[in-house]
Amino acid sequence: MRGSDEKRPPRSRALRAATAVAAAALVLPLVSAAPSAPDGQPRAAASRPAAGSLQQAFADAAARHGVPRDVLLAVAYMESRWDAHGGAPSVSGGYGPMHLTDARTALAGRPHHSDGDEDPRGDDSRARKRAPAQLPAAGALPARLRTLERAARLTGLPAERLRRDPAANIRGGAALLAEEQRRLGPRSADPARWYGAVARYPGADDARTAAGFADDVYDVLRQGQSRTTDSGQRVTLPAAPGLTPDRAQLGRLGLRSAAPADGSRLECPRTVSCVSVPAPYEEFGDGDYGNHDKADRPRDQRVDAIVVHDTEGSWETTLKLIKDPTYVSWHYTIRSADGLIAQHVPTKDVAWHAGNWYVNAHSVGIEHEGFLAAPDAWYTEAMYRASARLVRYLAHKYDLPLDRQHIIGHDNVPGTTPATIKGMHTDPGPYWDWAHYFRLLGKPFVRTAGPRGGLVTIRPDYDRHRPLYTDCVKPGQPCAPHGSAAVRLHTEPSASAPLVEDIGLRPDGSPSTTGVNDTGARATTGQRYAVAERRGEWTAIWYLGRKAWFHNPPEQPTAVDAKGLVITPKAGRADIPVYGRAYPEAAAYPAGVPVQAVTPLPYKLLSGQRYAVGNRVRGEYFYAPTYDLSRHAVVRGQDVYYEIQVGHRVGYVRAADVDVRSSQR
Description:
alpha+beta, five-stranded antiparallel β-sheet, 11 helices, 21% strand
């Protein structure tokens, strides 16, 4: 989505939805690998799992269907990390540890950029960009989104049981693997002989994507895994470091070939499967064009953020929308089941995705397949890994630190003016596991200071931290319990105290709510805030111009101490304004380029308050009113701004209004 400016003719209709840099292969950290055994052989379990346990369910399903147990465990880890999620579906309609897909009823919501009041461009100099979209009929769903019905046919188990019962779900996944193996030849007890069946499991229709998923599964097999699941059970996959799969099986699957990322067009690391699905740059209608803007970043504008989204539409729907010149745009889409990446817009160009034109001009947008309107429940391990590899590649390309000041969610992008705050989107939401994501990036959130460091980094234990959310299915109705990356913020150090208010979301000053899409009283994993006070098990941070308290008990901490730079209003200033974009001063605009208002948001930072600093930027505005590139211009001013963590979303303050100092006390 663009942001707002004032230059563009009204639209008659509007719909929503390069050179590859060689990079070293990413070594993604994995949790708690079990001790290794002799090369090529898994280590025997120390003791037989208890009857009825999840570990035993994998063993039983493997024996019933003739699938090597460790292959079954590794496939499930890549799909769900062995979590059952209480029978709730993933964002792409997958159920249980094996991610059996049943997406027929999951398309009631509108695609992400068609939902709500946000203007994807966020550019005041143009008419608002609206993005309605037609959804496909359930019958048009591809086979990869209907694997649960196949598992029901193979096992004779009812669909509801496959959705809700983890043991039955594991049986369903084993049956699917066994069916694929039968097509390749006789079943084998050797995990190396199951490469083809594993490659086919997520339903990819091209050889490169299928191989990418299988290679990740075999990496899991070689390294081993051990973790406690969301049901509290310990599941272990012993390591087999010398395991070498029979990759020749790939040629017998009958999959189409897909050109690798060879450096001619795609900007993807070599460690992912990546295809090109270009977004159009076309004129249409009465002087209108879409669906992105040509630029020459980083020569003409720096890239200083990567924005994480989810699509609220299936892969197929999303790819149809991105090809529509009357729609909006983003740079990449990642598929849920297998991590396939499609690039749409060269990263040198400006896509319309964040709802804030200033952020669009300086960011890369990545959409993650997910079409459950509420809640944005859970994401596959395959998607997390592919996304982490892509982000690491892009961060290297644009020299971005791997931190939450530069890797942000759409829900962290500020509104451009007070009028746009309510319409800003809230994806990827409280269920995106930022801690796991940053472990995969190789930058886990760790303590960097003692109690006098002056900052905290939010870091609850995702699996154990389950705050109550509402409005996932029906207004006021509690959501199913689920791990969350976000902590709740109160007006006083008490769980019974009201949630803090967000005057931008509720100008009447009423408190925030527990709604899953209400970001008014929320701090999320990886975000850094200045400490205002500590009292017993509670910590107060400076947030939207006031103290906001969250529960932070020593036996189950929800934040770690940190240090860094903070801003505070200059001496003698009772308060200072916050802005949603860092535009230049009026004197910087040349003739022919309309001056953009730098309108304060409704938040005031008071004397003595402190806020964590992200980027230091000079005021800049990208003027792109027409298809004709000769009229485009980048306006640079003298005003300097600091990006700060002002609330759940970031904001900008003028350097002239603040002092910058160390957070340490």
